[in-house]
Amino acid sequence: MTESMVQYRSCNICEAMCGLIVAHDGQDVLSIRPDPEDPLSRGHICPKAVALQDFRTDPDRVTKPLLKRGGDFEEITWDAAFDHAAERIRAVQAAHGPDSVAVYLGNPNAHKFGNMLNLPGLIKAIGTRNRYSSSTADQIPHHVAAIHMLGHPMLMPIPDIDRTDFLLIIGGNPVISNGSMMTAPGYGRRMDAIKARGGRVVVIDPRRTETAERAGEHHFIRPESDAWLILSMIHVILSDGPARLGHLAPLVDGLDALAQAVRPFTPEAAAEATGIDAGTIRALARDFAAAPRAVCYARMGASTQSFGTLCQWAANALNIVTGNFDAEGGAMFTTPALDYVGLTSRKGKQRSYPERRSRVSGQPLYNGEFPVSTLAEEIETPGAGQIRALVTVAGNPVLTAPNGRRIERALEGLDFMLSLDIHVNDTTRHAELILPGTVALEEPMYDMVFHSFAVRNTVGYAPALFAPPHGNPPEWEVIARLAARLTGANSIGPTPEQVLAMLLPQGFHGDRITLDKLRSGGRPVDLGPLVPNLGTRLETPDGRLHLAPQMFLDDLPRLLTQTDARTVQRPFALIGRRQARSHNSWTQNSPRLVKGRNRCTVEVNPEDAARLGLRDGADAVVTSTAGSVTLPVEITAAMAPGVVSIPQGWGQKNGRLGAATQTATVSINDLTDDSRTDPLSGNAAFNGLPVALHPA
Ligand SMILES: Nc1nc2c(c(=O)[nH]1)N[C@H]1C(S)=C(S)[C@@H](COP(=O)(O)OP(=O)(O)OC[C@H]3O[C@@H](n4cnc5c(=O)[nH]c(N)nc54)[C@H](O)[C@@H]3O)O[C@H]1N2
Ligand SMILES: Nc1nc2c(c(=O)[nH]1)N[C@H]1C(S)=C(S)[C@@H](COP(=O)(O)OP(=O)(O)OC[C@H]3O[C@@H](n4cnc5c(=O)[nH]c(N)nc54)[C@H](O)[C@@H]3O)O[C@H]1N2
Ligand code: SF4
Ligand SMILES: [Mo]
Q1: Is the pLDDT at 655 greater than 50, yes or no?
Q2: Which domains are seen in the chain, by residue range?
């Protein structure tokens, strides 16, 4: 009988950081259970946590460096792999310049602190300015709003949902996603608590989501018209009386400019744009303003769209003018143990934005990253600065970036591609060299990013539980060693734990939180509810809070002249959806997560389905300017008329990946259009894509 041991660690798959109790025998996981004493998740987990063990033992996992020879991958040694990578990267750069090698970083990096700490060094060693990541298919509008209003991309307002009386959710489905830029495990319970204390939760979404069901109050909205709604709410509030800036009053600039800017956004005009009637908009605005504590939270639905930046700006502005910014129960700022904002402070530094523009189509660059929407054209378009080689680290843009198959075709034309990944998948199969990554249970766990986005301040650390297979180096070390090979350095830097030990005492909790204390305590530690602190945190060069940055005001004419993107040929607006048992494109190889019916369906409103002759469960063809896909129809009144939904993250075409579903699935990004962006931030505008629908 083997002895059972226990480790407390947080799950790193999504942003929720659920506390887990992992029982193991030193070799294998015996069980993964929720930790009822975790100060943040208090016993919540989702089905994906249990699958953490599957990612380790996945028979399709890449566990040896693989080099493509004559079309097939062959195992090679680590030494040969590092040599090959460095040689090929430098050869491409010698022929075509430093920027001819691009880097794409995927979402899992944000959940792996060893990667977060070492990737900047790798990019520096490569010496390229051509950086891409999944952020520009996700949340860059939030950062752009934060930069222009508050001075730092990561000074991010987080809804204080545990103390609010009125939660307005625009374009988020946290009951399924468990919150994004709002780490809040057990979202349903937290929403129920708002209602139990007499508060309200209102959801604005073109789909009556799982979150909308649980909230009870929901309004359909025409896709991409959210900025109209929020600006109209501000219009009503500022017409009714003076703004309530509260303790921020001495810091705020631009109130008059905001009041002037929202004038055209009358509820009547907004009703036309959004499909929500004027009386409802007025009541929503007045109830929001009258609530003792209220917060507007706008997420994916309101950032991956043509007006993403205006939405994020307007949501912040609504919270500010109602006294709900940096205030209890409103939008607040975390004080994490590792203070990323402080470590990268921009105080007193004058910068101009956007930092640069892309070579081919002039899209803006923020946070040092070009929009992923421009990746294909930057590979395809000849000339100085053309991308000739690509390094991907934990990214799958063929399935996750707009017009993914165009990217796939472009990858075929590269001189060299290197992927650090755990699978041969739709993206990495185009690589010449694949380096194996390590999975969560083989790595120490500290969440550098999501403690900064959490609805409560907590901190946790757990050491690696198992050794990587075949004596492989941990992933951070692969990154560090590759960088060293490129620069010729004969050693790599400190371990992630050494860096953490050094940085923690510099954070908000000083000597109270050290790595040694976290290690000996075992469980995550509660650091208390969020506290008002913006007065000392503002990072703008002039130290002011900018309520009406000129760049946003200049974009308003585009919003005012917005027309419905749907046409006679393509009369439906396509939106995406997330599902409880998958995470983006990479968890679909866990049999326990994909078993059951095919969940990759197109959801259609009953009236639309009847008109088109679509039957529930039968196949439909969905067509956009980029391509067409065929998938089963699911008829549901959850969809607004004229809007259809396909889940993101499916369409694995390679080998066994995703094969556990027994059915072929499709990628929504075979349909999405890389020319649709939010021009202010360059973020992909996935939502509201015009499509046609026919029975197959
Ligand atoms: N249409 C549409 N498109 C979307 C979205 C949408 O809602 N609609 N959502 C967008 C969003 S929010 C995001 S964040 C992006 C995600 O876009 P990506 O980050 O490109 O995609 P992921 O599916 O997260 O892919 C992660 C990759 O990392 C690999 N991987 C997983 N774990 C590890 C690990 O531990 N180490 C290493 N080295 N590799 C690992 C997987 O095999 C996979 O190749 O997709 C975006 N795309
Ligand atoms: N189970 C699970 N959880 C996840 C993920 C996952 O893949 N699976 N991915 C993680 C990642 S990377 C992220 S970024 C987060 C995202 O977390 P969320 O922001 O909660 O993401 P979604 O569930 O995509 O919710 C977006 C919502 O916007 C709606 N929507 C679409 N277009 C519009 C529009 O024009 N206006 C409005 N108002 N709404 C619109 C959609 O119907 C959908 O309900 O989730 C994370 N958590
Ligand atoms: S909600 Fe997210 S963090 Fe929590 S168990 Fe599920 S995947 Fe892990
Ligand atoms: Mo994301």
Answers
A1: no
A2: 5-57 (3.30.200.210), 66-137+351-521 (3.40.50.740), 140-337+534-558 (3.40.228.10), 564-695 (2.40.40.20)
